[in-house]
């Protein structure tokens, strides 16, 4: 009979994937993907978009609730720079889940990219 010695979680934040793993008595590891907390969860998109509103509120001096958000689309960005690297910037070369959202501030429309965690933002030009 095989007994589990270690049980835990590995979280790959850039990919938004959670793996549970076990290591048995004989030292053989096994990993199985668990439910991913990413782009299919409306709670996650809401928190990522809210983070974008708070970020923009800090930049504009407006209240976060005054920044209108619409047309939220799930996206898979080609790199950690959300497909929009700054000049000379090195980007992680990993598919990065996130969102594209239309932002309206003072009657002007902008399109922003945000990662699934709401920690990186890029303005499309």
Please provide a written account of the structure.
- The structure is a single chain.
- The protein is an alpha+beta fold and 125 residues long.
- It has two domains: 4-33, no CATH class; 42-123, no CATH class.
- Helices cover 15% and strands 42% of the residues.
- The chain has one helix and seven strands; from the N terminus they run βββαββββ.
- The strands form two sheets. Strands 4-5-6-7 form a four-stranded antiparallel β-sheet, with helices on one face. It has a three-stranded antiparallel β-sheet with strand order 1-2-3, with no helix packed on it.
- The longest helix has 19 residues, at 42-60.
- It is globular and about 35 Å long.
- Low-confidence parts: 1-23, 32-41
Percentage beta strand: 35-45%
Terminal residue distance: 60 Å
The gross shape turns out to be globular
Specify the number of helices.
1
């Amino acid at each position: 009979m095989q007994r589990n010695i270690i049980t835990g979680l590995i979280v790959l934040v850039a990919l938004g994937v959670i793996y549970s793993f076990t290591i048995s008595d004989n030292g053989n590891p096994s990993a199985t993907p668990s439910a991913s907390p990413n782009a299919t969860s409306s709670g996650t998109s809401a928190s990522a978009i809210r983070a974008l509103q708070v970020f923009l509120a800090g930049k504009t001096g407006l209240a976060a609730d005054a920044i209108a958000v619409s047309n939220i689309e799930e996206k898979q960005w080609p790199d950690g720079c959300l497909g929009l690297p700054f000049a000379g910037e090195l980007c992680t070369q990993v598919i990065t889940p996130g969102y594209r959202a239309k932002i309206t501030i003072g009657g002007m429309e902008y399109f922003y990219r945000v990662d699934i965690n709401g920690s990186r933002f890029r303005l499309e030009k």
